[in-house]
Design goal:
The structure holds 2 protein chains of 2 kinds. By secondary structure, chain A is an alpha+beta fold. Chain A has 12 helices and 30 strands. In chain A, helix 10 crosses helix 11. In chain B, strands 4-3-2-1-5-6 form a 6-stranded antiparallel beta sheet. The chains are: A alpha+beta, B alpha+beta. At the A-B interface, helix 1, strand 1, strand 7 and helix 3 of A face helix 1, helix 2 and helix 3 of B.
Amino acid sequence: MKSKKFKVFLFIILAIFSIQACRMYYFRSDYSEANAMIHDPKNMSEKMYLKAHLKNGEVVILDNQWMIDTINNTVTGNGKQFNFNRELTSEGSFIVPIDSVAIFETNQKLTNPETGRIVALSIMAGIDVVIGMICITNPKACFGSCPTFYVNENDNFHFADAEGFSNAISPTTAYGDIDAIGSRKIKEGHFSITMKNEALETHCVKEVKLLAYPIIDGRRVFHAQNDSFYLCDHLTDVSSASANEGGITPLLKSADHNERFSLADEHNLSCKENVYLDFKNQTNIKSPALIIDFRQTLMTTYFFYSAMGYMGDEIGDIFAKIETDPSERDKLNGGVLKELGKIDVFLFDESTAHWVFQGSFNETGPIAINHQILALHPQQFASDYKIKLVLNKGLWRIDYAGLANIIQTVQPVELSPVSVLNKGKIDETALEQLNQQSKLLISMPGSHYKLNFELPDDHSNYDLFIYSEGYYLEWMRQHWLKDKNLLKLKQMVDAPRMYLLSETSDYKKYESEMEKVFWDSKIDTKSFSYYENGK
Amino acid sequence: MKTVNSSIIILIVLALSSCSQSAYYLPDPTSIYTSPFGAEITLTQNDDREDQGELIAIDDSIIIILEHSMVTDSRSIYCVPVKNMKKFTLHYARSPRYGWTIPVYSLAAIATGAFAIITLPINLIVTISVTAAGNHAYRYNSRNVSLDYIRMFARFPQGIPPNINLSDISAPTMKAKAE
């Protein structure tokens, strides 16, 4: 595949090169007789420099004001004369007897011979500058984050199936992250997933495991925020959904990547909003649980990059402090992230007419869609469920909402990779690094590893989850250094509400553009089968 | 993949290495009308011997080339029989140098982050081909022009004047070039 792409690449280069290189200029003519020269149509359209090669080896080069005097049989004009060694002998006006001339040479003017190349480079520079400007102002529009996992290795990051440990930004913040990758049909017990580094980051991966639970009788397994796994049945789509903008049922009824999201508040970035979900006639549900598919917008990444910019050239010192001082590390969990909050879930209690808090959904990262479950605890049995999600405006994208009946908690089988392909070749070292806790697989930008797993062959359908543990180191960008502002950084951590308020206008300036740039590049449509979308 | 990577590197190196220094006496493309010197010829003989230098003259049976080393300031005149000529390349103006665009544009593409997946190959395609094409611009070779055509690019297109001894012909000086 890569080789094919390279051949195409090479072909294009050779084609462009050939087109340009094949351009030949035939601009020179010479004449042994003046008469032939002045009557050649090529020399009639424009007057050009004339070189008179004299019989004695000298040459006279006249500018374009030369004239031929047919009466005196001379050529007159202004120019320079060189001897046979091409040393300048005289300069000024000349009267050259035609009889002394062995050959007249004329050259047609080459019209802008470099134009093609300069235009090509200019267009390319223009494209780079425009995209570069977008990337400088909207970093997340250009830079992904964290290891991304793909079932189909050729997918781009818009179709990432999972992204690992997004909050692990230094060695001591490393943690294990579980992401659902949906139900999959397994052929002959083989399953592969590709882990890519698509960002300017160094990924340090301690472990990657596949968690699998067989699907029997249509029962599904979902992952909860507390890393429990629930076996469920009677999965039902939302009956109706609404938010500030009105009905949003079509957006949440199916997992089709058509997501509901809002823009941040114009006056205060930490402003919250409500989304209401109704599930009607759920008579089969005894132990209800809410399932939503969601991910973040680019807001948290914006603040992460802003924080790095505020650190400026002291970023190394600050990260060293985070590494060595647990109290500094704890601050990472507070500040802006805490202020922005999670997706809080409330269930309406008919008996008290109150919304009762049930728990929260949370997962950092704007790339892969998370599929998670939250067990609900109604005060009494009901067939209709009214649910309210309270979330920060402009922070979350929700693709799907459903209700399911929890049968029991289960424990999926944990599988380590049996082999690793590094860009198509078996990589024993990478396998060893992933399978030994004491070792790290270091993945650099552009890396991609295909991890092969062997599943028990007694089932063909599994609900699969990917467990990834590690951390990543974001690369500092040169243009962020000028943003150094330690006071802002302090405000971000110690007074996040004030910080968000003060950042509102700056963030709003490019929020819509940033979102547009990032998501408009979405490849038009992809068909999701039952087994791919996890429902 | 390693093959692909090394091939890209080889392509870039080739593009850069082909930025061979144009002969100092060659004019800029905009001054080819006023240069008094001959073009630079690289002539390969049937025995694969190669001669390179200023094209002094071509007559029916012989090609005269002036080789000049700037390092040793030595000059040699070679008279190559036309029948011994296998092929030639004639370089009549300085090649524009675009080699710098490969690393510079690549860096610019990398600065576009995830878009570099698209912009980097396009940048490489454009800059490598522009550089390579630039290096091969303002040239003729035996495949596309005849020996008779390139005679016009000799210092003496009329042939060696009878009053001049080959031993008296000197290499272009930097002063002459400046003039």
